[in-house]
Amino acid sequence: MKRRLSSFFETGINFFINHTLMVLIIAFTLATIIILWHLERLANKQIESTALDNAQSYSQALAEFRTLYTSEVVAVAQSHGIEVSHDYKTKTGAIPLPATLSMLLGNRLGGKQSGVKSRLYSKYPFPWREISGGLNDNFAQTAWKTLQQSPQQSYYRFEDVDGRAALRYATADVMRPGCISCHNAHPDSPKHNWRVGEVRGVLEVIIPIETHMLLTNSMLRQSFILISSILMFCLICITLALRKLRLRNHEANTYAAAIAETNKKLEAEIATRKQAETELRRLSLIDPLTELSNRRYFDEVFKQEWKRAVRHQQNLAVIMIDIDYFKLYNDHYGHQAGDQCIRLVAKALNVLTVRETDTIARYGGEEFVVILPGTDKTGALKVAEAMREGVENLHIHHEFALTGDRVTISAGIASALPLVSMSHVDLLREADQALYQAKQAGRNCVKARNGSVVMLGAGKPKPTR
C-alpha cells in the first residue's frame, strides 16, 4: 500500500513538472470561474435585496402619503364643501381622490428618478378604473388572493416587465375608517358592504433592476479582463522561467525527450484507434442501405426519450411504418429494385421528419419507426398521414400491389403521457398493434390505437405539435 502511494505521489510530481503550464492554466481558470460565479451570485443577491428594500420604502411612503392626504386635506376640503373626485380636472374647484393623487405622485417620482412605477388595483374597481384598476394579469390575480389571506404580508416576484427585468412588489390596501362611508355610499361603488380592515385593493410597486444587472455584468467583465491579464502575465513569466530551465538541462533531458516522443507516438496511435472506434460505433448505428439510423440506435434513443417524457410529464408518440406488399415487389422486380425502393421510401420519410428532436430509423426489412417527442395523438396522425401521402406521391410503380399500381405504406400510431410504472415497450407494442390494424383495414392508411396505455398520466401535457 505504501509503495502504491509513493508511486502515485511520484507520478503526480512528474506530471506536474512535465505539464506545469497546463496544470496552472486549469487551476487559474477554475479559480477565475469560481470567483466570478461567486461575485455574480453576491451581486444578484444584493440587487434583489436592495430592490426589495426600495420597494418596501416606496410602498410605505405612498401609503403614508395617501393616509395623510385623506386625513389632513380631504377631510378639511369636504368640510368646506369642496368636491373630491376622480375627474377633478373637468370640475371647477374639485380636488383628486386620495388613490388618484397617490398614483400620480408615485408615477411622477418614478418617471423622473429611476423608472419606478406604481399601480393600485382591486377586484372591485370603480367604473372609471375598470381597465387600469382591475386584476389584469397573473401577478395581480395571485397578489390579490395572497393578500386576502395574509394582508399584513407582502407579495413579490422578480420577472420581466415590458421586456425588462424588474421587481413587482405588492402590499394590501385595507379599508380605513375615514374611507368606508364614501365607498359604501358612493352610487358608482361596485360594493356597498365594505368593513373596516377588509382588503379593498393592492398597491403594487414596480422596481426596474435591469440597469443594475447590466452594471453588474459590466463589472464582472472588467473583473474577468483584469484577472485574465494577471493570469496571462503569470503564465508568461512561468513560461520564460521554464524555457530557461529546460535550456540549461537540455543534455540531461535528451533521453526523456526520446521517451516523450515515443509516448507521443503512442498517444497518436491511441487517438487514431479511438477515432477509428468512434467511427466504427457511428457506422454501427447507421443502416448502410438507407443511411438512416438503425434498430440499435433507435433502441438507445427510444429509452432516453421515454425517460425524458416520464421526467417532464410530456407526451411521446411512436409511428410504426411498413411498405405495403414489399415481398411481392421484391419477388417480381428483384432485390436490387427492392433495395432502391427502400432507399426512395426512406428518403421521403426522412424529409418529412422535420424537427431536430424527432428520430427516424429503419426498424428492419421494409419497416421503419419514428419517435416524436412532445407530440400527442393528433400531431402524430398529421405526421403519419403526410408520410403516407409523400410515399404515395413518389409514384413508384408496383403492378402487383393489391392497393393500386404504386408503392404505398401503412402506419400505426401510439401516443402516451408516460408513468414511471409503464415501460417504453408498452408504447412500441401499441404502435405495432395499430400497424396491424392498418394492414387489416386494407393498407395504405394510418391507424391509431384507441384506449391503449396512452393516457394514464397525472397532470396536463406540455404543449405539443
Automatic annotation (TrEMBL):
> What's its catalytic activity?
2 GTP = 3',3'-c-di-GMP + 2 diphosphate
Instruction: Recite the UniProt keywords alphabetically.
Output: Membrane, Transmembrane, Transmembrane helix
Q: Which cofactor does it need?
A: Mg(2+)
Its EC number(s): 2.7.7.65
Q: What is the main EC category here? A: transferase
Is Membrane a UniProt keyword of this protein? yes
- Could you tell me which residue ranges the GGDEF domain spans? 314-451
Output one GO BP term: negative regulation of bacterial-type flagellum-dependent cell motility
Matching entries from Pfam families are given as: GGDEF, Tll0287-like
Q: SMART domains of this UniProt entry? A: GGDEF
A single MF term (Gene Ontology): diguanylate cyclase activity
SUPFAM superfamilies in alphabetical order:
Nucleotide cyclase
Extract the InterPro entries matched here: Diguanylate_Cyclase, GGDEF_dom, Nucleotide_cyclase, Rev_trsase/Diguanyl_cyclase, Tll0287-like_dom
User: According to its record, what are the GO cellular component terms?
Assistant: plasma membrane
**PANTHER family, alphabetically?**
DIGUANYLATE CYCLASE DGCM-RELATED, REGULATORY COMPONENTS OF SENSORY TRANSDUCTION SYSTEM
**What is this protein called in UniProt?**
diguanylate cyclase
Q: Which organism is it from?
A: Spartinivicinus marinus
